[in-house]
Amino acid sequence: MRRVGVIAALGALLGMLGGVVTASPALAGGRGDGWQFISLPPTFAVDPAFCGFGIQGTQLVDRVFFKALKTADGSMTFLATGANKISFTANGKTITADISGPIKFTDFPDGSATFLARGHQFVLLAPTDAARFGLPAAFISAGALTQTIAADGTLTSSSLNGHVLVDVCAALS
């Protein structure tokens, strides 16, 4: 069950991927073979468990593309890239962030996974994981973020070779 929670949090890292992946090659906008446009929801909510208050997210730019690859060992690698700009609103305050990535998520046959992100990302960590890794629970990162997830869904490592651009909880509190 914890693995489902980690994968749900990683979904948030994928630019709030909650929409439908469309199969129309015409929507790939010249991205090349196998890339699919991701139709992200226009709005989303960040659970109060992360910051102690709810946050409303709004997609301002939604041009994200997705590709799935199967490797020889049976692993599945998911790539996401494109343009994604979001506003976050809570407590009468709003911040805007470009979280365009790119992202690479690999799910291994043994159930473990690796998440690699570069550029600007919106990151959500369970409060206990945030404390363990010395990072905010909700933040915008710049640089390379690497996370590993055990087969049971436990986040086993999280390293940021870059910096926290915005602590979203602090900025909106």
What does this protein structure show overall?
The chain has one domain (2-23, 35-172). Helix content is 16%, strand content 50%. The chain is built from 4 helices and 11 strands; from the N terminus they run αβββαββββββαββα. The protein has helices spanning 2-13, 48-51, 127-133, 168-172, and strands spanning 20-21, 36-39, 43-46, 55-70, 76-90, 93-98, 103-107, 113-117, 120-124, 138-149, 155-167. Strands 1, 2, 3, 4, 5, 6, 7, 8, 9, 10 and 11 form an 11-stranded antiparallel beta sheet that branches.
Instruction: Indicate the proportion of strand residues.
Output: over 45%
Please tell me the overall pLDDT.
86
Rg, alpha carbons:
16 Å
Q: Percentage of helical residues?
A: 10-25%
Shape, principal axes of CA atoms: globular
Question: How many E strands?
Answer: 11
Please, how many helices? 4
Major β-sheet, in short? 11 strands, antiparallel
Structure summary:
The chain is α+β, with helices and mostly antiparallel strands and 173 residues long.
Could you give the topology of this structure?
Elements: H1 2-13, E1 20-21, E2 36-39, E3 43-46, H2 48-51, E4 55-70, E5 76-90, E6 93-98, E7 103-107, E8 113-117, E9 120-124, H3 127-133, E10 138-149, E11 155-167, H4 168-172
Descriptive key words:
alpha+beta; 11 strands; disordered N terminus; 11-stranded antiparallel sheet; 173 residues
